[in-house]
UniProtKB/TrEMBL annotation, chain A:
Organism: Albidovulum denitrificans
A single Gene Ontology CC term: plasma membrane
Protein name (database record): Glucose/mannose transport system permease protein
Main location: membrane
Compartments where located: Cell membrane
InterPro entries in the record: MetI-like (IPR000515), MetI-like_sf (IPR035906)
Automatic annotation (TrEMBL), chain B:
PANTHER family: ABC TRANSPORTER ATP-BINDING PROTEIN, MALTODEXTRIN IMPORT ATP-BINDING PROTEIN MSMX
Pfam families: ABC_tran (PF00005), OB_MalK (PF17912)
SMART domains according to UniProt: AAA
Protein name in UniProt: Multiple sugar transport system ATP-binding protein
Domain ABC transporter as annotated: residue spans: 4-234
InterPro entries in alphabetical order: AAA+_ATPase, ABC_transporter-like_ATP-bd, ABC_transporter-like_CS, ABC_transpr_MalK-like, ABC_transpr_MalK/UgpC-like, Mo/tungstate-bd_C_term_dom, NA-bd_OB-fold, OB_MalK-like
Keyword match tRNA-binding: no
Record-stated family: Belongs to the ABC transporter superfamily.
PROSITE patterns in UniProt: ABC_TRANSPORTER_1, ABC_TRANSPORTER_2
KW Iron (keyword) present: no
GO cellular component, one term: ATP-binding cassette (ABC) transporter complex, substrate-binding subunit-containing
Gene Ontology molecular function: any one: ATP binding
Gene Ontology biological-process entries: carbohydrate transport
Amino acid sequence: MSGGTSQDVAIRGNTVTRIIIHVVLFLFAVYYLLPLWVMLVNSVKPLDEIRGGNMIATPQHWTFEPWLQAWSQAQIGVQATGLKPYFLNSIMMVVPAVAISTILGALNGYVLTKWRFKGDGIVFAMLLLSCFIPFQIVLIPMARVLGVLGLAGTIPGLVLVHVVYGLGFTTLFFRNYYAAFPTELIRAAQIDGAGFFRIFFRILLPSSAPIIVVSVIWQFTNIWNDFLFGASFSDVDSVPMTVALNNLVNSSTGVKEYNVHFAGAILAALPTLIVYVLSGRYFVRGLMAGAVKG
Amino acid sequence: MASLTIRNLKKNYGAVEILKGIDIEIEDGGFLVLVGPSGCGKSTLLNTIAGLEDITSGDILIGDKSIAGLHPSKRDIAMVFQSYALYPNMTVAKNIAFGMEMRGVSKAERDKAVADVAELLQISQLLDRKPSQLSGGQRQRVAMGRALVRDPQVFLFDEPLSNLDAKLRVDMRTEIKRMHLRMATTTVYVTHDQIEALTLATKIAVLKDGELQQFGTPDEIYNDPANVFVAEFMGSPSMNMLTVPVEEDAKGLFLTLTRAGGDALRLPLPASAAMKARIGKPVIFGLRPEAMTDPASADRQGAEILEDQFLVDVVEPAGADVFAVTVLNGTPLTARMKPSARVKEGEMAPFALNLSRAVFFDPDTQVRLR
């Protein structure tokens, strides 16, 4: 080591240490990216080539047939529709569920910080508690509620389930973010004559971009990736992507078409990946902003 | 424009009394400063006037109309906050126009009003900027612009200068004073800075622990304090105070002050009834530093001056003044002198005590003896 610990010279980056750190980081990156690599290369190989052995190797014959199959032809359940209709089901479930839970979380955070009322701490604590309740516990009561509401087995029913389950998290995000938001601004707006919702939509919400991104990414990822609620509360025409993927991969009849399964799995993961890539840098910023003052 | 009247105002948080019956009346166009140490209730009082906090009992009137139950936006007031409270997502122009927009003023009228106010405050070139792109002084101006554009019955200021650096604070203070002279709008201004209070106010209300200690003109508050707290709080350095028993001999009432490097000093007292009642009992004797100075700078007009030699303990030069500390009755007293007075530590120097400006308080009740 070339004097990295010497205190006689100005501090500078130690080259050897740096190289070691970068090599280690590179190995980690490879480790994490390897599964994606396997999925990608095998999804563009013919089935024979996969059976032939090397999972890591690039394909000798490139083919996009598995992707087309997974998207629109593969046998899922009893029908050969591919993942397409289920992908649309998921979109129709995720978009309203994310939007509604984020807006409601923002309103909750606004009320819990700027329109304090007696017992608001208890209300917040109970909402927080909902973050820690395991999914399995709510299955049966939720099934009953959906039955009573007449939403059992429908996409709106799934939206409701995810909104209710996500509200604890979104409220937590927005409450912590708004706790650091100066109350004098609310007072100034009150003197200016703005009411409850005007203050919310004109002053608070436009200043909430970082935490909205956090909430959207968090909710989108969780709801899109959810399997248990999807499997429990969906019917034939409301099955979400994750459940359909399971039905595709776990079908016990016929040949295991690994290349189609890989393509399907990537298709299922694609939307969350896109959301992260587009708004990932706001995610960290927003998490920090919410975390500084709580 | 209108007068502002606060009648027996009380405010409780649960069992805690924050304001214990405040009575204040400020005339149309007056500048009322609420001053006091932190936690005295001055900001709470301002917030109740604004309607941001409700009151427990009492009444608040603008003109002769009670506003106690009204929503803040219906009180015809405008407020400048300590943190300026500019909406971060809006431009300066939108910030200033927001209140008018809420009241349904047409776009054309809003634009004109914004332009007028911006010109008045010399912020026209800033109208398209966001608050985050402004300096502290500029934000302060925008916050004032937002209040001015409303043309309210009463302006409320909540420590508006406390976030500025020292130089800017003095500039903005002058600016606020100039603005008030021009607009002549009734103003209520909260500060903990006694200099701000004295320079800006037409009337000062000194508060402590939710009680009004004294209400009067800056001159009354400074020269004629009602109790020990007001006397000590206003003025810097604060008033010199000694607790001494009142004595009487053939020549009248007097106090005896012992001093280092000299014999005891006889301080003649006015022969008022209040003082006669205190014979043999202690009083607090108070004298402002500027009433205790070098003979050359003593204000002799109609004043009773006591000149003598005192031992200088500490000298604190402060540019325009030199503060000389001398010890009387074991208590250090500060004298404000001209720099030319040439006092030296550990040496005797001539002092002139302006006894006409001496004030006396009852040590038990802390109330002024007249």
